[in-house]
């Protein structure tokens, strides 16, 4: 079951040596709250514009215990105990000075930039002549573009279809001939993109999809982990979490592949990518929404022999734009000249939550229904909320409805509110800082391909950790192509899952015992991955940032010891720190920017010098990726929440069975204005 969201795109116009007590972060020297008993409770930094105080300063301002001694007795007691007139421990002050010196030796300055802004720097379009025309919506779906909110495919009360009933049932993924469509071309393999790179004299080229994960982390950094704005949701919707999903917040990585002549291609790191039914359906459904039924049916495996070679090899249409040293490529999904700006927009299809929770077991969650506009569950509002938390920043299935979500609406959800003026400037500032980051990497390892990790610190709002290491092209290819080797058998596995699940449902319908089949199906669907249990258990469950607790430090130090015995390629750990200023005033994050406001960012890179700490931090970042991007661990984390949603899926399947029995023999009425008939 899919909900289709039609979304506007950004148009071209537009550690070895650890302190013993308390344990602190090997990366940023932050003291975890549970080890820092002297620190008083502080207000959430997200609710104030004042810069966040480091943990050490917070400890200095902790309230002192009351005493009944006289002032003179107090003073003499202080002196005898080595305390000055301000109540500060002289010994403690010496320790702080020592810690500051230790901090200075742990990090060495690399680059400092003052007053970076993008007031006059714009994203410039690159005009490429003779590109194929951009697709347009079919089935009357263009009506969605000009109607705010969700438009049901079939009105739940009258059962009248707003659009062609053909859209109700999606062509099964096993029946669509994907060999009849062009394959996605990564930036490093796009010869046309490389030619444009040379022509425009830029240094880095990449698709917007390959850069999205990295730019998300720059959003976290520049926004100071701003909470999401869900004021657009109804009062009937209650949700305690108003931050991005754990999956979105976890470290991300890219490959920066050297292409000669000092130029590089940005490819998304596919180490954790898995073939799944949703990625394939996204490709087929895009064609379904932009083709009439007769043309789309030609892509069914039984009919694909009727397609011409021209149709099979039809190239995609792209937008090209530049900013700084970047040349960016974005696929143009659809166009409508009546929309503001360029008229271009993205087509995004989205599965309901029961399918997304466990995509590998998609037939189990496929019965989940969307029955209302608002509410916590089985509603469009639930799906919209989940999109805010993840997508705004990326079976016998049915389509329930459609919605056009403008860029302004997405900005309102993640940038304070409507008309804040933040989104566009933040995007360009992010590109500017990413440009500086990649320059640091390529200057350190010139002419080398690199793997680069980004991890924004969730405890200290102004810091991001960056790791880059050189890799040979053969190593990168092995990582990137590992999953492709299994793609040939993907459809066969999908068909087996669907068949097994259908047989189980038939047995249940006949009232036979199906427990054994359920167990076998679960086993067949599980993806087994190698786990390093000792280190996995050591990662702090309550704080997914680089806070090193005793267990984690011990576990990762063992890893560092083992690494020392092997010859490890050189790698660099950088810390990116920033200070935001609006009209010269320091702020944690901008809340509103008018046309005359100037947002500037001071930022600096420092390099970690301690080899033990470097090893620990690098291992930590990789373990975080494995923990949250590995499908098994992600599915386990849902716990009772998953069981509840799956119960809804079972109820939804029963509801759908009753609906089909009631409606299948009835005439399907499609909306048409009576005034048009006259």
Automatic annotation (TrEMBL):
- Mention any one GO cellular component term assigned to this protein in its UniProt record: mitochondrial envelope
Write out the entry's keywords from A to Z. Answer: Coiled coil
An individual GO BP term:
mitochondrial RNA 5'-end processing
List all Basic and acidic residues biased stretches.
Answer: 75-84
User: Coiled-coil ranges per the record?
Assistant: 502-541
Determine the domain of life of the protein's source: Eukaryota
Q: Where is this region: Disordered?
A: 45-97
Task: Spell out the InterPro entries in the cross-references.
Answer: Pet127 (IPR013943)
Q: Does the keyword Oxidoreductase apply?
A: no
Check the record and name the PANTHER family matching this protein. Answer: MITOCHONDRIAL TRANSLATION SYSTEM COMPONENT PET127-RELATED
The entry's protein name is Similar to mRNA degradation protein pet127, mitochondrial acc. no. O74832
């Amino acid at each position: 079951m899919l909900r289709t969201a039609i979304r506007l795109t950004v148009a071209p116009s537009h550690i070895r040596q650890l302190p013993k007590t308390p344990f602190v972060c090997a990366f940023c020297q932050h003291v975890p709250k549970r080890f820092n008993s002297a620190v008083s409770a502080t207000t959430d930094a997200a609710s104030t514009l004042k810069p966040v105080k480091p943990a050490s300063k917070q400890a200095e301002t902790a309230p002192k215990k009351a005493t009944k001694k006289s002032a003179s007795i107090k003073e003499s007691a202080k002196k005898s105990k080595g305390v000055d007139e301000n109540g500060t421990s002289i010994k403690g002050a010496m320790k702080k000075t020592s810690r500051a010196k230790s901090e200075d030796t742990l990090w060495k300055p690399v680059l400092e930039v003052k007053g970076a802004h993008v007031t006059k720097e714009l994203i410039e379009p690159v005009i490429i002549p003779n590109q194929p025309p951009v697709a347009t919506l079919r089935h009357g779906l263009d009506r969605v573009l000009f109607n705010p909110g969700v438009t049901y495919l079939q009105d739940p009360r009258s059962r009248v279809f707003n659009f062609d009933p053909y859209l109700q049932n999606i062509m099964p993924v096993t029946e669509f001939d994907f060999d009849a469509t062009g394959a996605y071309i990564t930036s490093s393999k796009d010869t046309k993109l490389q030619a444009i790179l040379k022509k425009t004299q830029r240094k880095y080229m990449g698709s917007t999809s390959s850069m999205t994960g990295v730019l998300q982390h720059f959003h976290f950094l520049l926004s100071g982990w701003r909470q999401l704005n869900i004021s657009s949701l109804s009062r009937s919707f209650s949700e305690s979490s108003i931050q991005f999903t754990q999956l979105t917040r976890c470290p991300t990585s890219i490959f920066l592949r050297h292409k000669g002549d000092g130029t590089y291609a940005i490819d998304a790191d596919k180490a954790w990518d898995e073939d799944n039914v949703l990625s394939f359906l996204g490709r087929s459904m895009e064609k379904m929404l932009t083709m009439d039924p007769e043309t789309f049916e030609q892509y069914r495996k039984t009919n694909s022999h009727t397609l011409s070679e021209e149709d099979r090899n039809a190239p995609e249409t792209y937008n090209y734009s530049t900013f700084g040293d970047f040349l960016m490529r974005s696929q143009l999904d659809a166009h409508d000249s009546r929309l503001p700006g360029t008229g271009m927009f993205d087509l995004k299809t989205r599965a309901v939550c029961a399918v997304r929770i466990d995509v590998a077991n998609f037939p189990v969650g496929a019965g989940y229904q969307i029955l209302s506009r608002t509410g916590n569950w089985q509603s469009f509002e639930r799906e919209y909320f989940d999109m805010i938390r993840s997508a705004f920043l990326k079976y016998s299935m049915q389509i329930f409805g459609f919605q056009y979500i403008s860029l302004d609406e997405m900005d309102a959800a993640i940038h304070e509110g409507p008309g804040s003026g933040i989104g566009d400037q933040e995007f360009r500032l992010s590109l500017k800082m990413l440009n500086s980051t990649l320059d640091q990497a390529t200057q350190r390892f010139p002419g080398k391909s690199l793997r680069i990790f980004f991890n924004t610190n969730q405890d200290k709002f102004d810091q991001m950790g960056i790791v880059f290491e050189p890799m040979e092209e053969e190593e990168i290819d092995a990582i990137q192509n590992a999953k492709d080797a299994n793609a040939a058998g993907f459809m066969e596995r999908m068909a087996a899952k669907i068949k097994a699940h259908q047989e189980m449902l038939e047995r249940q319908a006949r009232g036979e015992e199906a427990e054994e089949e359920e167990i076998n199906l679960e086993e067949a669907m599980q993806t087994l991955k190698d786990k390093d249990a000792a280190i996995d258990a050591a990662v702090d469950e309550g704080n997914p940032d680089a806070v090193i607790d005793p267990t984690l430090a011990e576990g990762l130090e063992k890893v560092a010891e083992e690494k020392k015995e092997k010859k490890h390629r050189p790698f660099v750990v950088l810390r990116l720190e920033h200070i935001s200023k609006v009209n010269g005033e320091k702020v944690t994050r901008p809340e509103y920017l008018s046309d005359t406001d100037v947002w500037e960012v001071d930022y600096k890179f420092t390099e970690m010098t301690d080899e033990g700490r470097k090893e620990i931090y690098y291992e930590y970042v990789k373990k975080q990726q494995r923990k949250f991007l590995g499908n098994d661990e992600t599915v386990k984390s849902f716990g009772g929440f998953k069981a509840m949603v799956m119960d809804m899926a079972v109820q939804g399947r029963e509801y759908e069975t009753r609906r089909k029995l009631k409606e299948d023999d009835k005439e399907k009425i499609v909306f048409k204005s009576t005034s048009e008939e006259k």
